[in-house]
Amino acid sequence: MRRFRFEEDADVAADIREKFGFDGDLLDLFANNSGAVVHKWHHYIPLYDRYFAQFRGKPIRFLEIGVNKGGSLQMWRGYFGPEAKIFGIDINEECAAFDGQAGQVRIGSQADPDFLNKVVDEMGGIDLVLDDGSHRMPHVRASFDVLFPRLEDGGIYMVEDLHTAYIEKFGGGYRSRANFFRFLRDLTDDMHNWYHKKGLRHPEFKRMISGYHVHDSIAVIEKGATHRPVHSRVGG
Question: Residue 3 above 90 pLDDT?
Answer without folding.
Answer: no
